[in-house]
Amino acid sequence: MSSTTTTTTTTTAKAAAATTTTSSPAGRILKLDNVHAFYGKSHILHGVTMEVRPGEIVSLLGRNGSGRSTTVKTIMGQVDGHGTIQFGGKALLGLKAYEIAHLGVGYVPENRDIFAKLTVHQNLLLGQKHGAKNPRWNFDDMYRLFPRLLERQHTEAGVLSGGEQQMLTLCRTLMGDPDLIMIDEPTEGLAPKIVELVAEYLKELKRRGIAVLLVEQKLAIAMEISQRCYVMGHGRIVFEGTPAELRANSYIRKEWLEV
Prior knowledge:
- With 259 residues, this protein is an alpha/beta fold.
- The protein contains 11 helices and 10 strands.
- Helix 4 (120-127) packs parallel to helix 7 (162-174).
- The longest helix is centred in the first third of the chain and has 20 residues, at 3-22.
């Protein structure tokens, strides 16, 4: 075999290897393929296919009742689903929520779910994964992100304002050091100043390379921080693209997002 042929063969092999690496499950930290979900006899998700890549912020947009929250609950094992859901190449369907959490998936639910009788600091402590080596987040990080939590660290979480409880839920999830964090409507019902703090929190996740699946109705925040957007309607994905592409698509915005 000539040196030219050898060089060509080697180059082709390297290109094939690179293609294989890029398309491997590890390159897509979260992948849903043809996912269906039901509440009783009600068919909510109709073949949802989407993905979140490592270090990427993806917004899942749509009107209330479009299936966004059901999607993240199905990923988290709280709603039974059919199809394929993989995280880092591992199948999630059939696992319990705590097993999914231990794989590195964090979830901030819309209803916050704080431990009302425990203090702020104790809530954060419960978020830690025991035995985790070199966690990326600590108490100082949480109190720097939301100084109000430092002021209230010895206060029972049940007496916090709604905005303070949202801060606490966001930070408690981060204390588990997830590789992916799914956040459901983090700015719903919050005062504008608190919304600004939540936006800074999301930007910090982006700076640190944490993958985020964000369910959000406020388009301004979603457009500012996301690399890609999905729009849901009637339990289906009706649009996938960049924020710029969504801005340019007046039909999708009018048909599926605007009230």
